[in-house]
Amino acid sequence: MTVAILALQGAFAEHGQMLDKLGADHFEIRQKKDLEKEFDALILPGGESTVMGKLLHDLVLYESIRDKILAGMPVFGTCAGLILLAKDIEEEATHLATMDIRVKRNAYGRQLGSFYTEDEFRGIGEIPMTFIRAPYIAEVFGEAEVLARVDGKIVAARQNNQLVTAFHPELSDDLKVHQYFLNMIS
């Protein structure tokens, strides 16, 4: 099994480190020719969703990635990656728009609103959660289901082959969320 990590901007290296600890093969997608490599799943990291959305188009990655996700390839979006997958973003145009969620960007405020907590993640148990200028999921609809809430706000969800977290599991030593994603692939 090989996981591709979108490496245009953001916290992509940290996801690679988590996959290394789990013994999963991975590589980074930086340009269109990287999509020619064989891979079974994709991680869309945290960062700046507007920049990543623009780069997906500028680098001619958008259509191929969206088609792979819609065809059932497992994808894991963290923070900005969650925003990229959302079918509805409050007061903003959508990007890949493959997941039945409505998102509120920067819902926890600016950088100073960043925080750490531990809470329940369905199917995993209690895990560490680091939120940095994080969004939250205002609503799930269609086939999307809630996996975690913090203070009543939805911070993780799944829809078939798509997994999203508003927090950054790659910024802790806990491998459970990445293992959950790898289990989705096999």
Q: How does this structure look, described?
A:
Helices cover 24% and strands 34% of the residues. It has five helices and twelve strands. With 186 residues, it is of the alpha/beta class. It is globular, with a radius of gyration of 15 Å. A hairpin with a 3-residue loop joins strand 7 (115-121) and strand 8. It has one domain (2-185): 3-Layer(aba) Sandwich (Rossmann fold). Strands 2-1-3-4-12-11-10 form a seven-stranded mixed beta sheet. A three-stranded mixed beta sheet has the order 5-6-9.
Offer a few descriptive terms:
186 residues, alpha/beta, Rossmann fold, 24% helix
CATH class: Alpha Beta
Mean pLDDT: 94
Distance between the termini: 8 Å
Structural class of the secondary elements?
Answer: alpha/beta
Task: Give the helices and strands, then pairings.
Layout: E1 2-6, H1 12-21, E2 25-29, E3 41-44, H2 49-58, H3 62-70, E4 75-78, H4 80-85, E5 86-89, E6 99-104, E7 115-121, E8 125-131, E9 136-140, E10 145-150, E11 153-159, E12 162-165, H5 176-185
Parallel strand pairs: 1-2, 1-3, 3-4, 4-12, 5-6
Antiparallel strand pairs: 6-9, 7-8, 10-11, 11-12
